[in-house]
Amino acid sequence: MPLAPLLIVVGVLGLAIGSFLNVVIHRVPRDQSLVHPGSHCPACGHAVRPWHNVPVLGWLLLRGRCADCATPISARYPLVEAGTAVLFVAVAARFGWSWALPGYLYLAAVAIALALIDLDVMRLPDRIVRPSYPVAAALLVPAALLTGDPGALLRGALAAGLLYLIYRVLALWGMGRGDVKLAPLLGLHLGWLGWGAVAVGTLGAFLLGGLVAAVLLLVRAVGRKSRVPFGPYMLAGAFLAVFAATPITDWYAGLLMPATY
Questions:
Q1: Percent of the chain residues past pLDDT 70, beyond the cut
Q2: Burial of 111 per CB tally in 10 Å (0-12, 13-18, 19+)
């Protein structure tokens, strides 16, 4: 089937999901309901009008200010909406019309919410992480059966257990408990793709985290004893593997075993 219609539909879906993720990112750390009250200005309390709630366009129409009290609205809101749409389209381009696509779209949405919450409050809420396990199972198990690849599930389960053990050991040296809980979820999705993806996703998280930490230390944005959330790097490493595990592992294999002519 043509890919273009899928990308358009997924892009629009990403905008809508991104709008909801803004609510998740704001309310979950505060233990607030995701349903009640409806979208409203946190400064004046007035409800957001439906036409102002259109992803990205609503913020542009309001010129980044509340329609009632003119309080500035953070640019992060449209950026989350647009970023979710872009990531959704990238995932759809990666998996195409496949049974696995919904599982990785869900992971993309969860990744955006968790990364920003971790950056905000240095916490990966159980309210998001724990329900993601049964959702992942509900999406990936049928995909494996329908594609005739039950081995993907076995790899995913083994990778989930392996990453749990790795992060459980690292927790003895200060790794956060939220990171330990997130690791098996990423292992499940990376194991589905193959052991190369597990290696790239795991090592990529530590390489990205180390590089960013080094830059922050150089510019003195953090100190040597500062706490830095690691969840965003775990998620970034996972999606690096989703999109580029094969070329990265091929490149590395070429370094170890150069071609002979």
A1: 98
A2: buried
pLDDT of residue 261 exceeding 80: no
pLDDT digits (tens, 9 = 90+) for 210-260: 999 889 888 877 877 778 899 999 999 999 999 999 999 988 888 877 655
Output the CA angle 246-92-211, nearest 5 degrees: 50
- Predicted confidence at residue 48, as pLDDT, reads 86
Peptide bond into 5 cis (omega under 30): no
